[in-house]
Specification:
The protein is elongated, with a radius of gyration of 19 Å. It starts with a helix and ends with a helix. It is built from three helices and seven strands, in the order ααβββββββα. Helix content is 36%, strand content 32%. It is of the alpha+beta class and 140 residues long.
């Protein structure tokens, strides 16, 4: 009897969280929302361009000086990062529209990102790739 009450209580709690919006995922509506969210954490940084992934879960903001800002949806919140070529562990173009990015940062490893426009994927690789190559040359 006690097991049934506990199972029912847990199921009821999970259902309550779900139906009140607790399982909702965040999504970036447009480039301006990505700029605004990034500015909350990095108010001194100005993005020159924003590239959104096709699923609206991630935005890459070009900041100049070899710096890239990232806004990533995690659950119903957003994670922001400043990334340079020195932070990149792996950067590969999976195909014309997709990249795989892995960071040395243990708090956010990166992921696989798909863009609607192949030029967006190429520009992200171009922004970070030369610095990755330079850091590998320095290590050698």
């Amino acid at each position: 009897m006690l097991v049934a009450i506990v199972v029912f209580g847990i199921a009821l709690s999970v259902a309550a969280v779900h139906f009140t919006g607790g399982s909702r995922k965040a999504r970036l509506a447009d480039a301006q929302q990505a700029r605004d969210r990034f500015a909350q954490d990095y108010p001194d940084e100005q993005a020159t361009s924003v590239r959104l992934t096709s699923d609206g879960q991630t935005a890459f903001l070009e900041l100049g000086r070899g710096c890239l800002g990232i806004v990533q949806a995690i659950g119903d919140c957003f994670l922001t990062r400043l990334v340079t070529g020195d932070d990149v562990a792996v950067l590969a173009a999976a195909d014309a529209h997709a990249i795989t990015l892995r960071l040395a940062d243990f708090t956010w490893k990166g992921g696989h990102f798909t863009f609607a426009d192949a030029a967006d994927a190429k520009s992200i690789v171009d922004m970070l790739q030369p610095q990755v190559l330079n850091s590998l040359e320095k290590a050698a």
